[in-house]
Design a protein that fits this description.
This protein has 398 residues and is α/β, with parallel strands linked by helices. It folds into two domains: 3-255, Aspartate Aminotransferase, domain 2, CATH 3.40.640.10; 258-393, Aspartate Aminotransferase, domain 1 (Alpha-Beta Complex), CATH 3.90.1150. It is 37% helix and 15% strand. The protein has 14 helices and twelve strands. The protein has helices at 13-19, 61-73, 85-93, 110-122, 135-141, 164-174, 188-191, 226-239, 245-255, 258-278, 296-302, 318-327, 357-363, 379-393, and strands at residues 78-82, 101-105, 126-130, 146-152, 179-183, 201-205, 219-223, 282-286, 309-314, 332-333, 343-345, 369-373. The strands form two sheets. The chain has a seven-stranded mixed beta sheet, sandwiched between helices. It has a five-stranded mixed beta sheet with strand order 8-9-12-11-10, covered by helices on one side. The mean pLDDT is 97. Bound molecules: ligand P1T.
Length: 398
């Protein structure tokens, strides 16, 4: 058994993060650090006669190095980088055709919900949202035209944990051809390795923990299946949602410290979650590392720990949430998560404002739900900051 009762960490992760895709011998200069190749095009020795690269939308040396590392981190064969997390989702959804159906978990990032409900629907792709923590609900959700299962676990912003083994087997037993996709943004391959559970596509908003420095927007997909990889590669080239070589360099650099960063996010967030759990004005802390979490046992079965992102519900309403958020001094009031700096936000008005109100209310995304992204600052400073902001919001002694 691993840390905090979770799955044991696979050995060698940090070594892979530092070395995969990096090979000094591949460059004429023997550069130890992957060069940033900005060229959009590559000289051909005759018409359509080229070696590895012809045009940077199809492939670029800096991007290839990153994609190789991304694949290795998830224990996958193929990695693909995209211009944003939503760019990755759009490309993955483009594996489908008009008339197909996506069965999605009900709590997903607001932007994913918007893409599914507004854009895909208009293109003739049907999407239904179901509570994936309830097996009976999933079984009822399958349709004859279901071609893709969309999992986010833990979910954004309610931190529901979905049993990857159970849900993947359910989908495959309904129809072997259903493509099972997981958005693994909240955990990264350091804390969860979905390919080990039979998932077909692992998708990331690289913008978050994978880059970790809040200075790049990027997405990715990792797969094992050669045919699926070919189809995604074709879409990557055809749709053109690709990242710049400069951004690929920044992410490659960030991945070198992924293991160290995730280890600290994991430790600090659990300390803060436990502190909040004891606070008299906090009603519920939604953190998969707490034994009070409804899917604590499932978390321990499939994760090696939880990251720095979690939510809590307090006993106030919008007024208290606003005072709390604007009183924070170390945490910054902003959307996003997964950076070295701590962030706090109000999903109901910010990241999940695009989720229809009725759906939000049903899920429990209320004005009393605050989401934190615990960064890498000293944890004592973060607790002091939360304490003073809660004191202000609830008129408690300072
Ligand atoms: O922002 P982008 O790189 O396009 O990624 C979209 C995305 C996809 N999946 C998950 C789980 C996400 O959290 C996101 C982006 N999320 C935020 C900006 C947020 O604050 O939740």
């Amino acid at each position: 058994m691993g840390d905090q009762g979770f799955l044991e960490q696979k050995p060698g992760f940090a070594t892979i993060a530092i070395h995969a895709g990096t090979n000094a011998d591949k460059w004429q200069s023997n550069a130890v650090v992957t060069p940033i190749v900005t060229s959009t095009t590559f000289k051909q020795s005759g018409p359509a006669e080229y070696e590895e690269f012809d045009y940077s939308r199809s492939g670029n040396p800096t991007r290839n190095a990153l994609e190789e590392c991304l694949a290795a981190l998830d224990g996958g064969k193929h990695g693909l980088a995209f211009a944003s997390g939503l760019g990755a989702i759009t490309t993955i959804a483009s594996l489908l055709s008009r008339g197909d159906h996506i069965l999605s978990c009900d709590d997903v990032y607001g932007g994913t919900n918007r893409l599914f409900s507004h854009v895909l629907l208009r293109l003739g792709i049907e999407v239904s949202f179901v509570d994936f923590t309830n097996v009976e609900e999933i079984k009822k959700g399958f349709q004859k035209n279901t071609k893709m299962l969309w999992i986010e676990t833990p979910t954004n912003p309610l931190l529901k944990v979905i049993d990857l083994d159970v849900v993947t087997k359910l989908a495959k037993s309904y129809n072997q051809d259903i493509i099972v996709v997981i958005d693994n943004t909240f955990l990264t391959p350091y804390l969860q390795r979905p390919l080990d559970f039979g998932v077909d596509i692992v998708m990331y908003s690289i913008t978050k923990y994978m880059n970790g420095h809040s200075d790049v927007i990027m997405g990715a997909a990792v797969v094992n299946d050669d045919d699926l990889a070919d189809r995604l590669r074709f879409l990557q080239k055809s749709m053109g949602i690709v990242p710049s070589p400069m951004d690929c360099y920044l992410v490659s650099r960030s991945l070198k410290t992924l293991a160290l960063r995730m280890e600290q996010h994991k430790k600090s967030s659990l300390i803060i979650a436990k502190w909040l759990h004891e606070h008299p004005k906090i009603v519920e802390v939604l953190h998969p590392g707490l034994p009070t979490h409804p899917q604590y046992k499932i978390s321990q079965k499939q994760m090696t720990g939880h990251s720095g992102t979690f939510s809590f519900k307090h006993s106030g309403d919008l007024k208290e949430s606003k005072t709390f958020l604007t009183s924070l001094k170390v945490f910054t009031l902003a959307e996003s998560l997964g950076g070295y700096e701590s962030l706090a936000e109000l999903p109901s008005l910010m990241t999940h404002a695009s989720v229809p109100e009725e759906q939000r209310t049903k899920l429990g995304i209320t004005h009393s739900l605050i989401r934190l992204s615990v960064g890498l600052e000293d944890v004592d400073d973060l607790i002091k900051d939360l304490d003073q902001a809660l004191n202000r919001a609830f008129d408690l002694k300072n």
